[in-house]
Structures are given as structure tokens and as C-alpha cells.
Amino acid sequence: MATERDWGKAVAKLVDKTNSNEIIWIENPKLERENLVGTAYTGGAYGRGLAVYEYKYRYYTDAEEYEWREAVAIEFVRPGGAPEWKWPELPVSWQLLDAVRAQVARAGEFYDALVRE
Asked: What is the pTM for the complete model shown?
């Protein structure tokens, strides 16, 4: 099995392929996950379905005290969106979520049109 470092490289590759539009993502409001923040996104690469989304979780500071924290999940998903396997949690996952959100919002197209004026 791949190490955490290997999975970090894989996420970085997904970021690159998202930024170059080799992987196309869509908003998927039907994808339901516990403590989902905002919208989940789905796409595919190498014959596999992928999902990426932000979620919040309880981080316990003591036995009975906690604070809410946010994280990004990347999953292999089946065609209907059912989860198959969750990738390791890595800081680089935030970069993927940001790239996905920018692609779905067509931020690059807006920027290009704006600076051409």
C-alpha cells in the first residue's frame, strides 16, 4: 500500500490535472455526507469515480470539551456516489478543493475575460 507521502503526491497530481482541465468536476448536491460543509464535488480519473468535499468534525480538547474543525475528504465513489474508500487526510487536500471550486466557478474564464477588456 502507498505511504502517506505517496498519497500526497497523488493529490498534488489531481490538483495539476484539475488546473489543466484534464479532470472535470461538477457540483453534486445529491452526495450526502455527515457534517458536510457547502457542496460536494464529483469527477473521475483513470476509470475511477472521485468525490471531494469539506466537512467539520469534533476535535476533543478534553474528555468532554471539543471544538469544531474543518477538513477535506477525498473518496473513491461508485457511480451513484456511494463511498468506496476514503483517502488519507492530508493538508494538500485543501489545494485540491480550492482548484475544484475554482474550476466549477469558472474563475479562470472570468479572469481571462476581465483582463482582456
From this structure: 0.91
